[in-house]
């Protein structure tokens, strides 16, 4: 039965603020939490249900019956008022997920807002402590198994350390201000995982793959690293705006997947490699979870171009494309036209924009191994 209360809910759902999901900003939400007083998309409504009805009671705005008092509650609160309350003290370093993000980030955001009330009670923000330690499951460097390793994050020292044997020195001490963290890249096939990438003392990129069974712990680690990095960058670059620094904290990979690469001679074979586009760095690896890339190329702006096909004389596979850099040309081939086009679009989006000063300094740190790209 569609009555006056249903019409009231529908009318409220079209008001500015209520026309996007309160938690992930998806358009035209069709659900509502009638005790909190907000409109939600189907995915977030399901996550609200997961917290239990003592936290959030959800209904469909058209398919369920509505009581007058429930409509009244939605009218009094609504998404804008709820946001002012539940997101009052979201620190700038916290990653606020959107509809494109993975379940773990979105679920923890919702639980942090309504169940743990982390954003209007500052003392409940574990990621802001400046020091985090605990166990994460870390993939072996040469060994695909995961082992529990103690990790210690210190804002005062700008370090993330991990230990194989806690009585000994750390196995590795990484500068937090120079790392990137990609949350739950699909290749890891684990919901609460992340990949930490940094340039080691030899100038080579190293990847660490870690996870924790508890999504709350994993997301806390991720945001703790972001917060530590922001505070360190604020010290290092006092004149750069906070918004610009927040943009440098962590970046999910722009694109990843298998490609074949070949050299300039018609006799050169195509080799299958796992490619990762991490900001302006195009890396290729033996396997998706390799500890190091076999090589990496910095993608600049002037003198860079990408086109479908390969020049005459270069062995052509069906879905080939060419990347021009000032130093040399690279020849790739994808498994299908759709993959090739996705790579061309991803790389184009990077090389169309001039690099920032921070990106130029990253390029300077990368070891240049001229010629190796084609021969390995
Ligand atoms: Zn949503």
Automatic annotation (TrEMBL):
This is Arf-GAP with dual PH domain-containing protein 1. The keyword Cytoplasm applies. Its main location: cytoplasm. Residues 129-230, 252-352 form the PH domain. Coiled coil: none annotated. One of its GO terms (cellular component) is plasma membrane. GO terms for molecular function: GTPase activator activity; phosphatidylinositol bisphosphate binding; phosphatidylinositol-3,4,5-trisphosphate binding; zinc ion binding. The lineage of its organism: Eukaryota, Metazoa, Ecdysozoa, Arthropoda, Hexapoda. InterPro entries: Arf-GAP_dual-PH_domain, ARFGAP/RecO, ArfGAP_dom, ArfGAP_dom_sf, PH-like_dom_sf, PH1_ADAP, PH2_ADAP, PH_domain. It is found in: Cytoplasm. Residues 6-127 form the Arf-GAP domain. Pfam families: ArfGap, PH. The keyword Metal-binding applies.
């Amino acid at each position: 039965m569609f009555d006056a209360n249903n019409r009231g809910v529908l009318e409220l759902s079209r008001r500015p603020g209520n026309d996007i999901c309160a938690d992930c900003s998806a358009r035209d939400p069709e659900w509502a939490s009638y005790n909190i007083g907000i409109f939600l998309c189907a995915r977030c409504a399901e996550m609200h249900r997961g917290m239990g009805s003592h936290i959030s009671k959800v209904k469909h705005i058209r398919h369920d019956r509505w009581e007058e008092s429930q409509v009244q509650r939605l009218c009094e609160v609504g998404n804008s008022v709820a946001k002012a309350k539940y997101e009052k003290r979201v620190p700038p370093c916290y990653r606020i997920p959107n509809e494109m993000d993975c379940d773990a980030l979105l679920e923890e955001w919702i639980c942090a807002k309504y169940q743990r009330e982390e954003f209007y009670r500052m003392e409940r923000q574990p990621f802001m402590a400046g020091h985090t330690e605990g166990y994460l499951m870390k993939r072996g460097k040469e060994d695909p198994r995961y082992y529990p390793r103690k990790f210690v994050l210190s804002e005062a020292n700008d370090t993330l350390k991990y230990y194989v044997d806690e009585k000994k020195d750390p196995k590795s001490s990484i500068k937090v201000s120079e790392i990137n963290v990609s949350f739950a890249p699909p290749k890891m096939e684990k919901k609460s995982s992340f990949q930490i990438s940094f340039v080691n003392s030899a100038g080579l990129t190293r990847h660490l793959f870690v996870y924790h069974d508890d999504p709350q712990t994993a997301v806390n680690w991720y945001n703790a690293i972001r917060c530590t990095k922001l505070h360190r960058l604020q010290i290092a670059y006092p004149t750069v705006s906070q918004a610009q620094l927040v943009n440098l904290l962590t970046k999910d990979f722009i694109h990843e997947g298998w490609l074949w690469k070949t050299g300039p001679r018609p006799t050169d074979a195509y080799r299958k490699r796992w490619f990762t586009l991490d900001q302006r760095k195009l890396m290729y690896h033996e396997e998706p979870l390799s500890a190091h890339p076999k090589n990496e190329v910095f993608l600049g702006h002037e003198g860079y171009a990408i086109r479908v096909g390969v020049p005459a004389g270069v062995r052509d596979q069906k879905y080939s494309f060419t990347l021009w850099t000032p130093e040399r040309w690279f020849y790739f081939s994808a498994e299908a036209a759709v993959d090739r086009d996705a790579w061309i679009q991803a790389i184009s989006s990077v090389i169309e924009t001039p690099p920032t000063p921070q990106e130029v300094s990253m390029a300077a740190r990368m070891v240049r191994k001229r010629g190796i790209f084609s021969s390995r």
